[in-house]
Specification:
Elements (H helix, E strand, L loop, with lengths): L4 E6 L2 H12 L4 E8 L23 E8 L3 H11 L7 E5 L2 H9 L1 H4 L3 E2 L2 E2 L5 H4 L3 H10 L7 E7 L2 E2 L9 E5 L10 E3 L2 H13 L4 E6 L6 E9 L2 E3 L3 E7 L7 E7 L5 H14 L1 E12 L2 E8 L6 H6 L4 H9 L15 E4 L1 H9 L5 H10 L2 E2 L8 H24 L1
Parallel strand pairs: 1-2, 1-4, 2-3, 4-5, 18-19
Antiparallel strand pairs: 6-16, 7-8, 7-11, 9-10, 9-11, 12-13, 12-14, 12-16, 14-15, 15-18, 16-17
Helix pairs in contact: 11-12
Length: 402
């Protein structure tokens, strides 16, 4: 067992909890930095002013609040509150913003911390957050990608290039500059509106992509450790969350059998970036072809399903960057299982995308749940409390509209 100190940074409690439990299983000492958004009253958004769901886990030693997009405060917390005089601390960013901040400040953080990186060059990781750069590299390694064009934008305006085919799909070139403001556009007027909205969210460039009719959406979780790129299996999305775009509400994790050629190309893709760390690649089927969608340089939202199926990627990364022997650690999923992300279900119920019966049925039927755990019951107790609060709020909202 290890006593490696680790800092996990992110804004979503289920994805943070996945990393917490994965590393708690190998005895890491865990600090969580919670990226907290501000509400209309200026208070950090949390369920009841207390401990976040994931930080109720028995594996969390302490947690710290940080404004969600304060670069200076995140770096200050790391340097003032999270160093260890005995050894370097491992940082695992669980959001694009946290990953970019750590990358930008690699020089000042590296004497005290170990973290994901691209080579030894600060800024290298942020370069590969660029979706147009990802698509270019994907083509080079033989991965099918949808046709696209990059449009520079600003709040002052933009110019549409000639020849855009409709319908099309827009997304910021970098999620950290523009968020997940994605739109289907059926004509030029809709595209103008989408570009203006994305620019208002801080984007300087937007990827305008040919709209692809999607059959099934997939993801792979992986760990790049030096020259080794581990991709243990495939995540199949069976339902997407409606309140939170791009995160599976329900799905299944399956062995890699039948995907060998594709996964080989994904490994080549990641090696070419020079990345060391945890990653997630989204892809989809359209017209019988599997298309590359995007690379996320962090542990994916459905990553705990892979841990529960016997491949602990966060532990593999931590032990690898700390120089420990990882030869005996499993690297392949050998059996299929269904999973549910309770947060996606509850948030979709809260905003009327699911009935309560539908929400409960999805949670009850899954083989793997991301929050409930008999050996670590604190997060589920907190989530049950939140669920009760939301039921009261739903009744009040309906009564006020009556």
């Amino acid at each position: 067992m290890s006593s490696i100190p680790v800092v996990i940074i992110g804004h979503g409690y289920t994805s943070r909890l996945a990393v917490i439990r994965s590393l708690g299983a190998i005895g890491c000492r865990i600090t969580v930095i919670v990226q907290a958004f501000h509400g209309r009253l200026g208070r950090w958004m949390r369920f009841d002013g207390g401990t976040p769901v994931d930080c109720c886990s028995k594996y969390v030693d302490r947690f710290l609040w940080c404004p969600a997009e304060s670069e200076s405060e995140m770096v200050r917390l790391l340097l003032d509150k999270c160093t260890d005089p005995q050894q370097k601390v491992v940082i695992i960013p669980d959001s694009d913003f946290a990953a970019a901040v750590i990358d930008r400040h690699a020089t000042e953080l590296s004497p005290y911390f170990l973290f994901p990186h691209v080579g030894d060059t600060p800024g290298g990781l942020e370069r590969w957050m660029d979706k147009s750069a990802q698509k270019s590299l994907a083509r080079e390694v033989g991965l099918p990608v949808a046709d696209s064009v990059v449009v520079p934008v600003s709040p002052q305006g933009f110019t549409l290039p000639e020849g855009i085919a409709y319908p099309c799909f827009t997304k910021p070139v970098q999620t950290i500059h523009g968020g997940k403001t994605l739109h289907r556009c059926d004509d030029a007027a809709a595209l103008h509106r989408a570009l203006a909205e994305t620019a208002a969210h801080g984007a300087s460039a937007v990827l305008v992509e040919r709209f692809m009719p999607i059959g099934t959406e997939y993801a792979v979780l992986g760990c790049a450790c030096g020259t080794e790129v581990v991709i243990p299996g495939v995540i199949v999305f069976t339902e997407n969350g409606r309140r939170h775009f791009g995160i599976a509400r329900t799905g299944k994790v399956v062995p890699p059998d039948g995907f060998e050629d594709l996964l080989g190309r994904f490994r080549a893709f990641v090696r070419r970036t020079g990345f060391t760390g945890l990653f997630d690649i989204d892809f989809y089927e359209s017209g019988g072809t599997l298309y590359f969608s995007e690379l996320n340089l962090r542990f994916g939202g459905s990553g705990y399903a892979v841990t529960r199926q016997g491949v602990n990627l966060p532990a593999l990364f931590v032990r690898s960057v700390c120089g420990e022997d990882t030869a005996g650690m499993p690297r392949k999923v050998t059996a299929s299982a269904t999973f549910v992300n309770e947060r996606m279900c509850i948030d979709d119920w809260s905003f009327y995308y699911l009935t309560e019966a539908e929400c409960r049925a999805r949670i009850a039927s899954a083989d793997i749940r991301f929050v409930a755990d008999a050996d670590d019951p604190g997060p589920q107790r907190k989530l049950d409390r939140y669920f009760r609060q939301q039921k009261i709020k739903r009744v009040l909202r309906k009564w006020l509209k009556a």
